[in-house]
Amino acid sequence: MSAAGEVPPSTDRQRGVNFGWSLGMVLRRWQESVEETLQDLPHGSRGYHILAVVVHEDVPTQGALAARLVIDRSVLTYVIDDLEAAGLIERQLDPRDRRARRIVATDRGRRVLADAEERVARAEDQVLGGLSPQQRAGFREAAERAAEAIVSAAPGTDPCLAVGSVIDPASRGA
C-alpha cells in the first residue's frame, strides 16, 4: 500500500494483462473442452450441471432447481424432459405439495454423473494445465467464492448467458 493507503496496481496490470480477456479465454477453453467431453450427455454441460445439483444438493422442487441454477423454467423443462427420456432422472410428486415435482436422479443417472465428473475433472486439469496443482485448487476456490458472491448480490444472473457471450456463435456449431 502507498503512504496514502491506496493499493498499487498489480504487476499484471502494469504489463497490460486484461482480467476480462483472461477470464474469457479460460471460460472459452473450459466450454469447448467440457462440451466435447460431455457430448454423450443430453444438453452437454447444462445437463451435467442439472444432474450434479440433483445428485449432490437437496433441491426440493423443479422450481427450486431452476432458481438454484438460474435457468429459465421453460428451458429447464426441456432439459429435464431429455434427461428423463435418457433414464438419468425422474419426476416425482412432492409429498409436501402434490402440485410440485421433485427431480430425483435414477441409479443410472448417478453412475453417469460419476463418470462425467471424472471426465470433466480431467478436462479442467487440461484447461488449467499451465498451473500447478496447488494453483489449480486455489483458482477453483477463488472462482467459486466469486461466483457465489455474484449470485448472492445479483440472484438473477444467468450463467448460461455469460458463457454464451464469450463463445463465438460461429464456433458453437449446432
Give the mean pLDDT.
83
Q: How many alpha or pi helices?
A: 9
Record the strand order, biggest sheet: 1-2
Determine the N-to-C terminus distance: 50 Å
- Give the % helix: 55-70%
Shape: globular
Outline the structure in words.
This protein is mainly α. It has helices spanning 11-15, 19-37, 44-56, 62-69, 73-85, 107-127, 133-153, 159-166, 169-172, and strands at 89-94, 97-105. The chain has a two-stranded antiparallel sheet. A hairpin with a 2-residue loop joins strand 1 (89-94) and strand 2 (97-105). The protein is globular and about 55 Å long.
Present the secondary structure layout.
Layout: H1 11-15, H2 19-37, H3 44-56, H4 62-69, H5 73-85, E1 89-94, E2 97-105, H6 107-127, H7 133-153, H8 159-166, H9 169-172
Antiparallel strand pairs: 1-2
Helix pairs in contact: 2-6, 3-6
Describe the structure in brief.
This protein is mostly helical and 174 residues long.
Features:
single chain, 174 residues, mainly alpha, two-stranded antiparallel ribbon, 9 helices
